[in-house]
Amino acid sequence: MSAQAPSAVILIRATSFVPNPATAADNAFQADAPAGQSDDTTSAHALAEMDALAAALRGVGVRVHVFEDDDHTRPDSVFPNNWVSTHAGGTVAVYPMYASNRRHERRADVLEMLKSEYRVQAIVDYSGLEPDGIFLEGTGAMVLDHVSRVAYTARSHRADIAVLERFCTDFNYEPMAFDAFDADGVPVYHTNVIACIGTDVAMIALGMIPDEARREQVRERLAVTGRTIVELTEEQIREFAGNAVELCGRTPEGRRRYVMAMSARAKRSLRPEQVAAIEESCEIVAVEIPTIELAGGSVRCMIAGVHLDHRPEQLPEPGENVVAINEDNPVTPDGRYVAKDYA
């Protein structure tokens, strides 16, 4: 199995969703909901899109952990990849968040599920850096090459280079930081909107890196394992073509299948030869999520990949109806986890 493509993911099923006003100032991809549309309608549309993504991933054999969130004070909780990441060898990272109203998206029940269902050796928590104004928003701020152990990072106030280097020391990655801007000179707020790294293919808007020498270093580093580089335009980035993620699913017969999950909007922006290059190594799974994309993130932002070894299945006794992982992590009969705050 590829170290790059996780076979399980975490999704947050948020019953309240609106574009977050606290993140609008530096997120050039964010947009307002249609004029006259109520928050309840926006939330309902987003909830249907979240369910569609979960169904699409399960349909290609990806293990999906869905956590319910009924807290109306967490408008961006649908994007868990900004606060948690998991790593082969049994380590979990928890990150410091820039927007103060996003910091209580961190949840103890997510961490407890990981510890109970997967082999977790340690949790490294960087969130204590928030009072010092130091932030690194997880795999939004960093796009991780788990094969070559490189952390590609566009500099921004959501990606502090000092904590990036600390993360790389703790988790054995090589930091590769660079500046990236749009045509108006606005810094890219999260690296994962301009770059996606798969096992055998990488999609990236190299043209948004103005330093030619650094641009070529990034290109060469990505290609060192023989990856195909699919260069994206800024126009395609605006359509969230870079905000994709490779996952490992299963066919109905149990064979591995590699998929590239992205939004339908993102796929429509790709040229036929780009689609063909991606499909040389993985199948594209595209889902319509126009409401969620109003918040400035797309499918990659919605997915926290699980790069941990799964514990052996605990088979229930005959006749036992199992609806909970343990006493602290109740789930609904359809497998959704009940919300519980991080502490």
Automatic annotation (TrEMBL):
PANTHER family: AMIDINOTRANSFERASE. It comes from Nocardioides exalbidus. Pfam families: DDAH_eukar. InterPro entries: Amdntrnsf_FN0238 (IPR014541). It comes from the Bacteria. This is Amidinotransferase. Gene3D superfamilies: L-arginine/glycine Amidinotransferase, Chain A. Signal peptide: none annotated.
